[in-house]
Amino acid sequence: MSSNIRHVLGISGGKDSAALAIYLRSKYPQLDIEYYFCDTGKELEETYTLISNLENYLGKKIKVERAAADSPENSFDHFVQVYGGYLPSSSARWCTKKLKLEPFEKFVGNDPVVSYVGIRGDEDREGYISRKSNIQSIFPFRRNIWSEDVIQKVLHVDSLSKLVKAYEKQDLTEKQARILAAVATPLSRSFNQTHKLNLLLDAGIAAFNKAAFEVLQETLYPLAKTSEFALLDNEDTLVRDDIFRILRDSGVGVPAYYEKIEFEVDGQKGEYSRSRSGCFFCFFQQKIEWVWLYEQHPDLFARAMEYERQGYTWMEESLVELAKPERVRQIKLDAIKKASKKTASSSIYLLDIIDEAEEEGCASCFI
Ligand code: SF4
């Protein structure tokens, strides 16, 4: 494969990026992928175990990037000092920017890069898209592997004739040939971008990918710098169950914090676990995950508490309040109630409240 571009994959410590690395290694061994991990200095121990297992599987080192690497403090503590003790939150997320995105962009530099992102086919989110024009995100687990900006470009009225020509070059089936009429129809209020995209993907994912790739050849996107791209034929869509299967079948294993642990309160049984990777004190955690940390990793909970001072807390209630026995009891009861409601209304998957929460937050930290 021509290689004027770099291929990179960020390992977050979460299940989806790990499964993506395994999937791409086994399905597209010809891709020379560079793996990296932006270490905040506050990761769970299980994250380092996963990274070590992955390195063994991939036969390749995962490059560790650290923000403020010259500081005597670890990355997070360095920036907490810089911000005067001001803790990050979902509305002031300096941590993602400083500890994940900036080290990633430094790692990439100005090279043209394809960045593979493990957002699954059963998720409805876009994930982080770099504003740097030399970085192009690709989503191999989704039916639509392209980022939103690429789709806008490809389906834009200015690209219409190029798209039609790109389809015409292909050896189309009768059904796909009929789709050409739709391809040539400009977007409108009654025929919007999502509608058109779905129609084209329904008619043939590989055909759409090849046409989109052709349109991109006349742009400044990194993929314009290569004449071929292995994933154009990819028609796979991978969902949550596939991710767990890939991790288990490969021998890499599922990070231990995903494993559900049973608890009992007032004679009722419930389960808790952690839903995602990232810092042990991440403010995206649900209350029941904080209880999990308090009971399963009391040392880490105590360390999270140490950051809460001078009015700065990880959420609206302090960890001192959350750890009170009556509050722990109530959080567990709430979790049991929410899980039973979810179970009563769920379809084929027994998704619980924790699984449901995993789509919140940041692709750089949790995928
Ligand atoms: S895991 Fe949470 S606390 Fe850590 S960098 Fe990401 S968003 Fe911030």
UniProtKB/TrEMBL annotation:
<dbReference type="InterPro" id="IPR014729">
    <property type="entry name" value="Rossmann-like_a/b/a_fold"/>
</dbReference>
<feature type="domain" description="Phosphoadenosine phosphosulphate reductase">
    <location>
        <begin position="7"/>
        <end position="125"/>
    </location>
</feature>
<dbReference type="Pfam" id="PF01507">
    <property type="entry name" value="PAPS_reduct"/>
</dbReference>
<protein>
    <submittedName>
        <fullName>Phosphoadenosine phosphosulfate reductase family protein</fullName>
    </submittedName>
</protein>
<dbReference type="InterPro" id="IPR002500">
    <property type="entry name" value="PAPS_reduct_dom"/>
</dbReference>
<dbReference type="InterPro" id="IPR050128">
    <property type="entry name" value="Sulfate_adenylyltrnsfr_sub2"/>
</dbReference>
